[in-house]
Amino acid sequence: MTTQEAISALRKKHQLTQQQFADKLFVTRQAVSRWETGETTPGPDTLKLISKTFDVSINTLMGSPRRLICQCCGMPLDDDSISREPDGSFNEDYCKWCYTDGRFIYHSLDELVDFLVHHIPFGDKPIDEAKQFLTSQLSNLDYWRKEKAPQ
């Protein structure tokens, strides 16, 4: 999906005319029309306003060009699972289960792995093998690489 398709779909989902959509964003109807035809794209501040007003991530507004995954647990992210900052804005780096109310839930990789190993089916794998697998995969995510970085 392109940005123009995402904006048009969002407006139609909320059953708004271009004028009503424009009024909510303090722009002209012509601006909305140009976004929807692909002639122009909203600027960063307008994208933030659309995101906040209609409760949709900027990644979604941009047509989902990035495949988002939580940089703590590796879970794929969509608008329902993306974490939020205390002001309500989206934090597209983490899921709402790893980062809530401006705070990280897991403070060590071992803590997260201990939780996951009991909540993800690993078939016949022994727990130690499952823990080793999770540790090797998760340690490549940004949150855990930052933890290892020299201070």
Q: Overview of this structure, please?
A:
The protein is mostly helical. Among the domains are: 3-61, 434 Repressor (Amino-terminal Domain) (Orthogonal Bundle), CATH 1.10.260; 109-148, no CATH class. It contains 8 helices and 4 strands; from the N terminus they run αααααββββααα. It has helices spanning 3-13, 18-25, 29-37, 44-54, 58-61, 109-117, 127-138, 142-148, and strands at residues 82-84, 90-95, 99-100, 103-104. A hairpin with a 2-residue loop joins β3 and β4. α1 (3-13) packs across α3 (29-37). It is elongated and about 60 Å long. The N and C termini lie far apart (41 Å). The model has no long low-confidence stretch (mean pLDDT 91).
What's this model, at a glance?
The protein is mainly α and 151 residues long.
